[in-house]
Amino acid sequence: MASLNVGNLGEYLREQRRTAQLSLRQLADAAGVSNPYLSQIERGLRKPSAEVLQQVAKALRISAETLYVRAGILDEKEREELETRAVILADPSINERQKQVLLQIYDSFRKENAAEAAAAATGAGVTESAGATGAGLTETAGATETPAGVPAAAAAERPADAPDA
């Protein structure tokens, strides 16, 4: 975990507050923190907790993860992964089972890419098996095998008109 860079965070918060056309007092009230405490955060004198950052982000209607990155609590890669997961979970056009399957596929791709990157870094190299497609699925006599960790039943419930990955 990186050390806190509260000066950068404070400047960013002030900019976001002004963009939202909120006074310091209005933002403090909306976030449930004291006016002097928020002022000290903006001036880089205080290190807010993740909980306070979450409250401020909610009041500003911005991503809490963005504030965590600015504060050095979260790194950029972690933020991107969390945002991807949040978008999948928030999609009202798919049901809960479909969301879980998507997250499992996402995790399997991330693990596969991490393994390939680690192998490439060690010089071992990773080769795809014969017949493997770029999406991480293997075609076998017309049947599609699912990536590791994805329930076969869930993959079988894919609509017939869904394009192959």
Mind telling me the C-alpha Rg?
22 Å
The major pleated sheet works out as:
2 strands, antiparallel
Shape by Cα distribution:
flat
Helix content: 55-70%
Total number of strands: 2
Strand percentage: under 5%
Question: Total number of helical segments?
Answer: 8
Describe the 3D structure:
With 165 residues, the protein is mostly helical. The protein is built from 8 helices and 2 strands; from the N terminus they run H-H-H-H-H-H-H-E-E-H. It has a two-stranded antiparallel sheet.
Overview features:
165 residues; mainly alpha; disordered N terminus
Give me a quick take on this structure:
The protein is 58% helix and 4% strand.
Topology overview:
Elements: H1 6-19, H2 24-31, H3 35-42, H4 50-60, H5 64-71, H6 76-90, H7 96-122, E1 138-140, E2 143-145, H8 152-156
Antiparallel strand pairs: 1-2
Helix pairs in contact: 2-3, 2-4, 4-5, 5-6
